[in-house]
Amino acid sequence: MTPEQSFSRWVRVALGIFILAFGYFVLADNYAPMTPQAQVQRYVVPVAPRVAGQVSRVWVGSNQPVAAGDPLFELDDSDYRLALERAELDLGLAETGLERQQAAVRVAESQLEQQLGQAQNLAAQTHSGLLSAEARLQEARQGERAAEVGLRQAENARAQARLALSRTRVRAEVAGRIGNLQLKEGIYAQAGGPLLALVSEQAWVTADLREKSLRHVTAGTPVGIVFDALPGEVFRGHVESIDSGVREGQQAADGQLAQPVNSDRWVRDAQRLRIQIGLEEPLPALATGAKATVQLFPTENGLFRTMARVQLWLVSQLRYLY
Fold it and tell me: How far apart are CA 228 and CA 321, in angstroms?
C-alpha cells in the first residue's frame, strides 16, 4: 500500500469515526442527556437575633449538629430584665388606678340612688343635685374606661418586655449543622443582623441542562447520579420539577424600554434550565454544594437506556482520576 493510499485510508477511518461520534452525540443529547453541572443543595437559614445586645455566651461550635430548639447563643439580658421589671411596676400602678376608678363608680352610683330617693319628696330642690350626681357618675365611668385601657396597655407592655427577654436566648428553628461560625462573646449584635448560618438536613440535587435536552424530560423521569466525592457509586433518583424560568428572562417593571441583546456570533450559547432531583435512597453525608454528574433516562427505548447506563458507568469510573 502506497503512502497516499494509507493516508487516504486513515482519512476515511477518521471521517467515519467523526460521523459515528457526531451521530451518537445528537442521539444521546436528545434521548440520553447527561450533565456534569449538578450539585447538592440544602436550605441554609441565616440565624439573627430579634433583639439587640452584646453576645454573652455562645453554645455551639462550627459544623456542630443541632436539633430544633437547641440554644445557639445568648445576649446580655440585663436591660431586658430591667425593662420587664419596669413594665410589671407600671402594670401594678394601672391595676391600682382601675380599682380606684371602680370604687369611684360605686360611690357615684350610691350617691345617685340617694338623690333619686330624695327627688320623690323634694323634686324641685333636688333636681340640680340629681343632675350633679349623674354627671359625677358619668365622669367616674369614663375614668373607669380610661383606667381599663391603661391596664390593657400595661399588660401589653409587660408581654412585650417578657417576649424581648425570652429572645435574648437564640435557639435553632430547624435541625441542621452550624456553618461558618464566626461568632464570639463580646460582639454587639444588631436586631435582624445574621450572625451564623444553619445548614438544614433536608437535601436535594439540582442539575442544569440545555433546553433541547429536556424535550422528553418530565416530572418523574428516572435519573442516575454520580457524586465527585464518591467515585464508582451510582445513586438513583427522579426529576421532581423543571424550573419555569431563569433570571435572564425576568423583566423588571421599571418603566424602561426593552434592551435587545446584540451579538455577532453565528452560534449563540444554549440556554440552560434547572431541574430539581429527588433521591430514592439516603443521601450520603456530602457538603452543601458538592458536585455531581446527572444522567437522565427520558425514554423506555432499550438502546438509549443502555447508552445512558454505559455513559454513567464510564463517568463513575473516571471520577477516580479527577
Answer: 10
Count CB atoms within 10 A of the CB of residue 92: 12
Note the pLDDT tens digit of each residue in 104-130: 666 666 665 665 656 555 555 555 555
Per-residue pLDDT reduced to its tens digit, 198-215 = 988 888 899 999 888 888
Judge contact between 108 and 137, C-beta under 8 A. Answer: yes
Q: CA separation (Å) from 224 to 134, 243, 313? A: 87, 19, 10
Which residues, other chains included, contact 60 with Cβ-Cβ below 8 Å and sequence gap of 6+? 66, 70, 72, 73, 178, 181, 196
C-alpha to C-alpha distance for 113 and 130, rounded to whole angstroms: 9
Q: How far apart are CA 309 and CA 27, in angstroms?
A: 14
Chain segment 224-235, per-residue pLDDT in tens: 999 999 998 899
